[in-house]
Design brief:
This protein is an alpha/beta fold. Helix content is 50%, strand content 13%. Helix 1 (19-30) links the parallel strand 1 (10-14) and strand 2 (34-39).
Length: 264
Amino acid sequence: MKRVDYRNRWVLITGASSGLGAEFARALAARGANLVLTARSAERLEQLALDLGRVNGVLTSVIVADLASSDGVRALLSGVDALGVQIEHVISNAGFGSAGRFVEADAATQAAIVRVNCEAVVAIARHFVPPLAKLRSGGILHVASTAAYQPTPYMASYGASKAFVMSFSLGLREELSGTGVRVVTLCPGPVPTGFQRAAGVDKPLPKIAVLQASDVVEAALHAYDRDLAVCVPGTVNSVQTSAVKLLPRAIVSKAARWALRSRA
């Protein structure tokens, strides 16, 4: 497939108010994309949309929605439909996690992780992919994690949710083969975006594996241009995920338990 031309095309970005989502918005606006930005924070979204429109001369719209709430996805999808624009690319980035022993975890938070990281991903794809298949163009980029490659003790729900995202994306990609619709999965390693603080991981990130958000986004968009199935940015992260696939699951699980227990 040829390089994606985003000029005057509409892109939906979930979780756009900060971190990777905001960085995707900046990078795509610089490429000429019109943006629909969604997250929970109205003030952040509106300021980002204003700045990107002024600097890049693109059109922007903001939809405030909490995907963890029971009607969050419905509010988002109806809000996008009400705009009357053709969404040609979706960056399904919204997600969160929590760290600690599962037996002590807040039940509502664990359910919300599944709702945002899994249910919302499926619902958003189901809404936008059928029109793209008819258009025979565009696509969706799902943000998973290197946590998708192995069990993650002390972040069990989060790791499992990202494994779901990758498996779902790869299955959907095969279904859409030959339609002209891209489905790409991004599996970043540690990125200093504030995710760790929100998840309750208070230990410093391992510097050898850390990439800046801008580097991750550039790698992801390059992979999207090339229509790659999976993008794991960074040499260390790529080596790690490759090694995990070769080792017995019992060893991988124990190693993950040791690493995450010391940080959670």
